[in-house]
Amino acid sequence: MSNPIIHAFDFDGVICDSAVETAITGWKAAGRIWPDMQTAMPETLIDSFRRIRPIIETGYEAILAMRMLQQGDTIGDIYNGYTDRTQTLLQQAQVSTDDLKLLFGDTRDQWIAENRDEWIAMNPLFPGVAKKLHALEADSWYIVTTKQERFVSKILRANDIKLADERIFGLDRNMSKPAVLTGLLAQHTGQNMHFLEDRLPALKSVQQQPGLKPVKLLFALWGYNTREDKAEVAAQRDIVGLNLEGFLN
């Protein structure tokens, strides 16, 4: 009998299509820093945000990304100078990344308090994913994400998906994804572990850890990644590209 598989799933871009909500929250939060953004967000920026979403590692960065778009930076500008542009904005606004994390979470909390149903609706699960998660044994999977854990819990509960809080590893724990996976691997000695993630840099960070060699790395092709990412994965063997149909089956 084969060992059961332990699944570790990223959340945004794998389980939840949160791009629209992230963009709107980023815009609302940015308005609390830059007064000229205290207006309704132009809908045309949604598509632009989706196109730059693959470069964003953690949700709070949407505050800076929406500022860049509002200021007229092109998609190419943002991809080519993202780090420099984020540092410039942080310095100009005299805020830290910790400040932005708190602001982003607070802006989400406020939206939920005002209109929870609208917020949930802006965080749909990818088609078929809820059914897939319902079919998994409750003790066979974890969420490993940079999202704050309370928001993951709210979205899962809204979709009637039961997962214990201690199985959600989010931003609150201040742990890298390789560190989380190292701990999980130690807990599940002798079991196979799969990590499904849509950001290639995150998978590469796991790949670089010798102690995580036993973890099978799966790249969610339906998530927030680029054509270049997909081509890179297709050309090598250590990370396996997986489409949504393959995941569901």
In short:
This protein has helices at about 20-30, 45-50, 60-70, 75-95, 95-120, 130-135, 150-160, 175-185, 200-205, 225-235, 245-249, and strands at about 5-10, 140-145, 170, 190-195, 215-220, 240. The chain has about 250 residues and is α/β, with parallel strands linked by helices.
Description:
InterPro entries: HAD-like_sf (IPR036412), HAD_sf (IPR023214). GO terms for molecular function: hydrolase activity. This is HAD family hydrolase. With 249 residues, the chain is an alpha/beta fold. Helix content is 50%, strand content 10%. It has a six-stranded parallel sheet with strand order 3-2-1-4-5-6, sandwiched between helices. The radius of gyration is 18 Å and the shape is globular.
User: Per CATH, what is the topology of the largest domain?
Assistant: Rossmann fold
Extended strand count: 6
User: What is the structural class?
Assistant: alpha/beta
CATH homologous superfamily descriptor of the largest domain = HAD superfamily/HAD-like
Number of domains: 2
Order of helices and strands: EHHHHHHEHEHEHEHEH
What's the mean pLDDT score? 96
Span of the ends, CA to CA:
21 Å
What profile does the largest beta sheet have?
6 strands, parallel
* H/I helix tally: 11
Q: Which sequence of strands runs across the widest sheet?
A: 3-2-1-4-5-6
Architecture (CATH level 2) name of the largest domain:
3-Layer(aba) Sandwich
Q: What is the class of the largest domain in the CATH system?
A: Alpha Beta
Radius of gyration: 18 Å
Could you list the spans in which at least 5 consecutive residues all have pLDDT below 50?
A: none
Helix content: 40-55%
Backbone shape:
globular
Strand content: 5-15%
